[in-house]
Amino acid sequence: MFWLLLFLSIPGRSNQVGIVGNPLAHARPCSDNTDIIASFESGLPPGEENQYYLNINGNIQKHSQINLKFDSDATVTLSDPMKARITASTNTNDFNVRFFKGSSHLNIHVRGPATGTIPYVQSIILDNDEICNKPTSGYFDSLIQGVKDTAEITLTVPADESCGRRKVVHTELIVHGQPTKSGDWPWHVALFTVQGNIVKYICGGTLLSKTLVLTAAHCASVRGNAVVPESLSVVLGKHNLIGGDIAPQEREVFEIILHKDFDPRSLNNDIALLKLKSEAVFDDYVQPACLWQSSLYKKLPSGGIYGSVVGWGFDHQDILSTTLQQITIPIVSEAKCLKSNPIFFHNKLNTNKFCAGFANGTSACNGDSGGGLVIFVPDVPGAKTQESGAWHVRGIVSTTVSRTDAPICDPNQYTLFTDVAKYRKWILSYLD
Fold first, then answer.
1. Strand (E) positions, 333-388?
2. Which residues pair with 106 in a beta bridge?
3. What confidence tier does 42 reach under pLDDT thresholds 50, 70, 90?
């Protein structure tokens, strides 16, 4: 990356060096192809910085096609619309450029959504040949100046498109929870075991990309060893535990990735990833959640931090809920958690977990394991409404105290969650 400088020769004065207009930076979006260049103009007003020009050099024939895919929502405009026509495909999440004249290059203007995210190239296919096998990202992030002296843009997963945003209108575990409607939590998935003709619900999970599901390790293992992938089934877009869903998507599991340090006795490192055999189709009822990172705290409104948990876990009648239920609970301090039940939490709570709940009868319970505790992060820092923002998975339902009269959860105790932030790099290493 470099600054583009112009040497000026002015009569009657010595030669000077100056920047003409705003500084221009260049980067290579594909480390394996020097014919693809991205150009970024810095110093633009806030809200207009998330844009750049992408130039693809090459011998492009008449009737050629170029397919482009970005890692977040994008608006793409052709610099020369007389040579080609561009269309967007919502089904495959890419842009298609069809040429009706030959050209030595393709120059396009790429702009992100109003939230300020810069869309980076993930794939460029020219006439069925991938010409960007090693895409890079983040190369312009440090140039974003932002608003109010801030200069931080961090991309969130999944890489395929924007995450954590509902596609249906929302109306404002789970013990004493509240009912939901289809599409309220499009990243929540149901895990089933399949043994012959017997299918049994066991856990929840969180969709992170078109092929990756986050869940608890104890949901996908027996005595610390991963179960056979064929014995698990993942259902996306599910609202009713027993049939009647609008648009469910069932997927087989290709690979189960348990954290290498998972301890089935203490449930330490209780985290796993499920790779799906076929891609999810994002629609109104299936969407990925964003992945939490510590820098998001500054965007949250002041006061306590609350997260939402959903599931089909045992209700107050000690039976699985037939429809997806939701609760909103606060994250509590380690000291408060330990004080509530010293014996249990001293043995279970560590730096890789956190406590959340009310300890008043509203709790995650058996059957909610593996599901995510998600936090709403507003697009406008500090905003207290949920009109615009994204949901980030902050924790994974791991364990809680059992009742003395039955082997199910005690809703008057806090719940322990695996701290997703502690495993962010591990998760990202497996993302598509």
1. 353-356, 372-378
2. 56
3. confident
E-strand stretches of 196-246: 198-207, 212-215, 221-222, 225-226, 232-236
Task: Report the relative pairing of strands 389-400 and 249-258 from DSSP bridges.
Answer: unpaired
Residue 359 to residue 337: CA distance in whole angstroms: 10
d(CA 153, CA 166): 22
Specify whether the CB–CB gap between 122 and 69 falls below 8 A: yes
Indicate whether 391 pLDDT > 90: yes
Q: What is the DSSP string of 131-155?
A: S-SSB---TTGGG---STT------
pTM for the whole thing?
0.61
Tally DSSP H helices, then E strands, for the chain. Answer: 3, 28
Helix, strand, coil tally for the chain in percent (to 5) = 10, 40, 50
Instruction: Read off the pLDDT of residues 125-153 as tens digits, 9 standing for 90 and up.
Output: 999 999 999 988 878 877 776 644 443 44
Cβ count near 284 (within 10 Å): 14
Q: What is the pLDDT averaged over residues 87-102?
A: 82
Instruction: Return the number of other C-beta atoms located less than 10 Å from residue 409's C-beta.
Output: 25
Specify the length of the chain in residues. Answer: 432
Residues annotated as part of the active site: 218, 270, 369
Q: Which pLDDT band holds residue 186 (cuts at 50, 70, 90)?
A: very high
